[in-house]
Specification:
heterotrimer; A alpha+beta (385); B mainly alpha (299); C mainly alpha (276); A: 385 residues; OB fold (Dihydrolipoamide Acetyltransferase, E2P); 6-stranded mixed beta sheet; 20 strands; B: 299 residues; MetI-like fold; 13 helices
């Protein structure tokens, strides 16, 4: 397969050329980078710019090419085409050991035959620093990750969380220009994850290191990252802050990938500067969007609705638009909230999240209750693709 | 570009020494065996005639098929091949029958006992093979331990012949090659997920049914590897039939040794080796496929 | 031991008896003072004294030990290179051929390997006059060739188990390929190199058939001496020699086992303290 044939496939996001970018805005530039393994295109003409000091997450399902992209940044894979530019210097052909980039591996890759402090000192020794300097840096770093007391231990004598701290310390000790995290929480159990996510993000922020991480866990990406790129089939689908990606998905794929969403298909009926109405087979009333969008009358669109932005009630709401009748088919109780699955006359199932903010509410909905679901003018997002 | 070539050179450099060594000292010798099997024995140094002769601007190739014809006309060789295959096959089956339960038992053990048992299985093969065969000579002799015990207990009046029989050869082969059967079987069985057996029991299969429909099929790779590790060298075995089998037990390894050291007929010895190699080609290919798959799976 | 059935225990017991009883008999009879090896007379070290007085055996022991040392060392170097090629070089033309060449000596009947190497040496002498005399050098070449196969198998299975990201991590931290190999890969595969070396050493020490083909009149190895005296019947001196060999291996093996299981235990204890 020739990459030149596919260069315009997908929704690549590139830097706006009109914008005046200073060096910090274009700290790391990935320009039209592709990677092929035989006939398989793992990464397809990816463009990204990463700002100085930010934590940037590549989020996607396994096999979407995010790890390959990360390995190209580290130097373990060479791009088939395109450029990787760090602070104005093209580093495509630099060997991994020549790059000012360090990586924390998913398996941590702590050297089993070395103690914690030897692991930390390994990278510094390669730079031929003198002993006192190495000792000082190691001590500082161990203090930062609170591992000073275990410095003589071997990796297999440490718990998962402790190993992770050592791995992080080892990847930070050379003050890299770029830190790479490969599935940083992949090897930890769920409870420890929540704690370590914040802890690691804080350490990275406090040092001001620019960081690119790879994860398949959206919660992890949203907690830790300043910006997220959603990847699918080797391409970038959307780049934005966590809230941009959640609230303003640009495609059905992103909307469905992040969180859960209800999709209503329909056609544009009125297209006014201040509002848009849409007719849908799935919705008895018209769908009313409280702001203008770029579309034309009759265009087929999809309306994305997050479950928590929908209300549910036994009585018909007092609104002309944005409501559907239905029957409760399923209730998933999560403690803090419940998710109701409502079957509509058209046969569609709509998920609605309700906070359980009242204890032992008497008139709680139950199975087979006839209900109405409804939402605000600004609750939904129109996806034109 | 320069960098690219340097990288290729470095890789090539790594491959070169072992590759060159194996081609020169392992692959090329087989071609020479093949070549010499087509020449004639001669009283000379070295004791065979040349195949290629170049004189008077003529290249003369003297291919002599006599050695192969000889192998097929004299029934001694045919019988030796057949008897080698038979003895190797029976010994392999015996090894499998004894080795499988041992490997299975060790694979189901825990921690340090497992390591200890494994070591006890391997340990004998670290001591001299010749010495261990020699030990059996002392046990199986007419005035050896077994006969002494049998006579003193009154089971027999005069010693039964144990040494210099086919039975002794089987004992020798099984004794020597048992660890080579147990190790690949163990390596295979230890990977077997015990939950599969639990699932099978949960679905109503008894232990015997579970063994034949779950454990046995999944350990096929280990069975093939172990069997080939026993069968192939056993076919060409020399020391065991020589020391334990006596003059009457015919095996092709002994015949080859005799042709070479006794008759000094190098061309016939080469022909014997060539045919043996052809017979073993399929078992060797089987072994390689397994060995390669193992390596690929791991990496 | 809970899920080991009675049947497997019996089979194991029988198996171990079958493996060790013959050796035990040898050891016991090596202390027998009687010339007739099957009749027990007195406990004595007589045969050990005679063994050490036998110059032919003693010089063969020395030849065999030297041979085993040099064969094992060369086999470890070549075998490790071969294992690295198989495990790390990716796909290259002739990889399957290479793989077959590496593992074929594992199963090749010894008579074939021996004969083929001898014919090679003869052909080499005829075409370019080297090696002039068969002996130590030719046996060494033969032993390296078949020992290398065992080393390759042992080392490549260790390499395959090793986490590749350890090497990547070292390079990521600034170590070039050679330093990565010396400081990371080598220490991690070292146990495999040691056991490969020991295996090659014992294989070389043990070989009779191949050495018989490729040796010359000047060099006689220990197995060749043992074989020729055993062929004539039982010999009490060989019993003594066998006892020394068996006890050496047993002691070494149990020492290694004890050390490794003690390390294992301290490691486990270390892990226990650190559950969080």
């Amino acid at each position: 397969m020739n990459t030149a044939e596919n260069h315009n496939v997908g929704k690549t996001v590139s830097a706006n050329p009109d914008q005046i970018l200073n060096a910090d805005e274009e700290y790391l530039t990935i320009r039209k980078v592709s990677k092929q393994f035989g006939d398989f295109t793992a990464v397809n003409s990816v463009d990204l710019t990463i700002k100085k000091g930010e934590i940037f997450a590549l989020l996607g399902a396994s096999g979407c090419g995010k790890s390959t992209l990360l390995r190209m940044l580290a130097g373990f894979e060479t791009p088939t085409s395109g450029d990787i530019i760090l602070q104005g210097e093209r580093i495509n052909d630099h060997e991994p050991f020549e790059r000012p980039i360090n990586m924390m591996f998913q398996s941590y890759a702590l050297f089993p035959h070395m103690t914690v402090e030897q692991n930390l000192a390994f990278g510094l020794k390669q730079d031929k620093l003198d002993k006192s300097q190495i000792a000082e840096k190691v001590t500082n770093m161990l203090n930062l990750v609170q591992m000073q007391h275990l410095r003589k231990r071997r990796p297999h004598q440490l718990s998962g969380g402790q190993q992770q701290r050592v791995a992080l310390a080892r990847s930070l000790i050379k003050s890299p220009k770029l830190l790479l995290l490969d599935e940083p929480m992949g090897a930890l159990d769920k409870k420890l994850r929540a704690r370590m996510q914040l802890e690691i993000a804080n350490i990275i922020d406090s040092l001001g290191v620019t960081c690119v991480m790879v994860t398949h866990d959206q919660e992890e990406a949203m907690t830790m990252a300043d910006r997220i790129a959603i990847m699918d089939a080797g391409e970038i689908c959307q780049v934005g802050t966590p809230s941009e990606i959640y609230e303003q998905p640009n495609s059905q794929f992103t909307a469905e990938f992040i969180g859960s969403v209800n999709i209503l298909k329909g056609a544009v009926k009125d297209d006014e500067p201040s509002y848009v109405t849409i007719t849908s087979d799935d919705c008895e009333t018209e769908i009313y969007i409280g702001h203008g969008i770029t579309c034309f009358v009759g265009q087929e669109v999809a309306v994305a609705l997050r479950p928590e932005k929908i209300s549910i009630s036994k009585t018909k709401p007092d609104q002309q638009y944005n409501c559907i009748s239905g029957v409760v088919k399923d209730i998933a109780y999560f403690g803090s909230h419940s998710v109701y699955h409502v079957r509509t006359p058209s046969g569609k199932t709509i998920s609605v999240t309700e906070m359980n903010d009242i204890r032992w509410a008497g008139d709680r909905l139950t199975w087979d209750d006839p209900v109405w679901v409804y939402w605000d003018d600004n609750a939904s997002v129109v996806l034109t693709e | 570009m320069k960098d690219f070539q340097w990288r290729r050179f470095k890789k090539w450099w790594l491959i070169f020494p072992p590759y060159a060594w194996l081609i020169l000292f392992f692959a090329v010798p087989f071609l020479i065996i093949l070549k010499i099997s087509f020449s004639e024995a001669a009283i000379a140094q070295p004791p065979y005639t040349a195949i290629f002769e170049y004189a008077n601007e003529k290249l003369v190739i003297n291919l002599n098929f006599g050695n192969y014809l000889w192998l097929f006309t004299d029934t001694l060789y045919l019988n030796a091949y057949l008897s080698s295959l038979k003895i190797a096959a029976i010994s392999t089956t015996l090894c499998l029958a004894i080795g499988y339960p041992i490997a299975y038992g060790i694979a189901r053990m825990q921690g340090s006992i497992q390591n200890l048992c494994l070591m006890l299985i391997i340990l004998p093969s670290w001591t001299s093979f010749l010495i261990r065969i020699y030990a059996w000579m002392g046990i199986l002799r007419n005035n050896g331990i077994i006969n002494n015990v049998l006579i003193s207990l009154g089971f027999v009046d005069e010693p039964i012949r144990l040494l210099n029989t086919e039975f002794a050869v089987y004992i020798g082969i099984v004794y020597t090659y048992l660890p080579f059967m147990v190790l690949p079987l163990y390596a295979n069985l230890v990977k077997l997920d015990s939950r599969l057996l639990e699932a099978s029991a949960d679905l109503g299969a008894g232990p015997i049914r579970s063994f034949f429909s779950i454990t046995l099929p999944l350990s096929r790779g280990g069975i093939i590897a172990g069997s080939m590790l026993v069968f192939i060298p056993a076919v060409g075995e020399f020391v065991i039939p020589e020391l334990l089998g006596g003059a009457e037990i015919l095996m092709i390894g002994k015949v080859l040794w005799g042709e070479f050291f006794g008759n000094r007929d190098w061309p016939v010895a080469s022909a014997v080796a060539t045919i043996m190699l052809l017979l073993l080609l399929i078992p060797i290919a089987l072994f390689h496929r397994y060995q390669f798959r193992e390596l690929e799976e791991k990496s | 031991m809970a899920n080991v059935s009675k049947f497997t225990k019996i089979v194991l017991g029988f198996g171990f008896f079958f493996l060790y009883a013959p050796m035990l008999v040898l050891i016991i009879y090596s202390f027998n003072s009687s010339e007739r090896v099957n009749i027990w007379a007195d406990f004595s070290f007589k045969w050990y004294v005679e063994l050490f007085r036998d110059d032919a055996i003693m010089s063969a022991v020395w030849v065999s030990l030297k041979l085993a040392f040099f064969s094992a060392s060369a086999a470890v170097i070549l075998g490790t290179l071969a294992a690295l090629v198989l495990a790390r070089a990716g796909k290259f033309t002739g990889k399957t051929v290479f793989g077959s060449l590496v593992t074929a000596p594992l199963v090749m009947p010894e008579v074939i390997t021996g004969l083929s190497l001898l014919l090679l040496f003869v052909a080499m002498v005829n075409s370019f006059g080297w090696p002039q005399e068969r002996g130590f050098l030719t046996i060494w070449i033969a032993h390296v060739t078949f020992c290398m196969a065992y080393v390759t198998v042992v080392v490549s299975s260790r390499l395959a188990e090793m986490d590749r990201s350890l090497e990547e991590a070292a390079m990521d931290l600034g170590a070039n390929k050679i330093k990565t190999f010396i400081f990371i890969t080598l220490p991690i595969i070292l146990p495999a190199l040691v056991s490969g070396w020991l295996l090659a050493f014992t294989l070389s020490l043990d070989d009779l058939v191949i050495a018989s083909f490729v040796s010359g009149p000047s060099s006689t190895t220990l197995p060749m001496i043992v074989f020729s005296s055993v062929r004539l019947g039982l010999s009490p001196k060989i019993n003594a020699l066998a006892t020394i060999m068996i006890l050496t291996v047993l002691t070494a093996a149990f020492a290694a086992y004890y050390i490794s299981s003690r390390e294992e235990r301290t490691r486990r204890q270390g892990e226990l303290i650190n559950e969080d």
